[in-house]
Amino acid sequence: MKKSLTVISSETLTMSSLEMVDYINADRKSKADAEGMTFPCKKFRKLRHDSLMAKTPKVLGETQSPKFIGDYIDEKGRSYPCYHYPKREACLMAMSYSYELQAQVFDHMTKLEGGNEINLLDFSGLTELAISEMQNRVAAAEKFSFEEHGQAGSALMTRRKKEKKAIKKAEQLVKDLIQFKLCDMGDFPGGEMMA
Fold first, then answer.
1. Do 31 and 86 share a domain, yes or no?
2. Number of folded domains in the chain?
3. Which of 22, 4, 10, 7 is nearest to 104 (CA)?
């Protein structure tokens, strides 16, 4: 597979349409091999990049897809159009071919993000972090939950509701920890505090 994964900013990891074509063709080849067929064949055709480029606006929408257009330079120095899909859009494109392919793309991009190293929704060690780290962790969990499971009409909305409850509890825990509580110091003789 081509190494065409691009980082647009320090936070946005993308997969190029060239890499997507490689994933789709590798998936088709493995299915053909499993059935004892050669690849490409009538049942498992080889996907061309221009076909994926034409399909992208149909899957992502005519108004959304231009946000992800870019270009690539081939080995002869020529420039061609190419899409750079963020994680969500890469998964949508892969899902338009197969659920298995979507899972592969999701796992690949999650691994590249470092998502396998930390579970954003695990708040077990939250109180051991500094206050600013606690707040950042809760904010990151909310962002992750909304982006991955909060889309209208998503079958994952039930998961989002459960995650939201856990996030609310973590937010309350952080608020309770950062609010200073003063104990009752009792009455002082003559109404004055002693030095």
1. yes
2. 2
3. 22
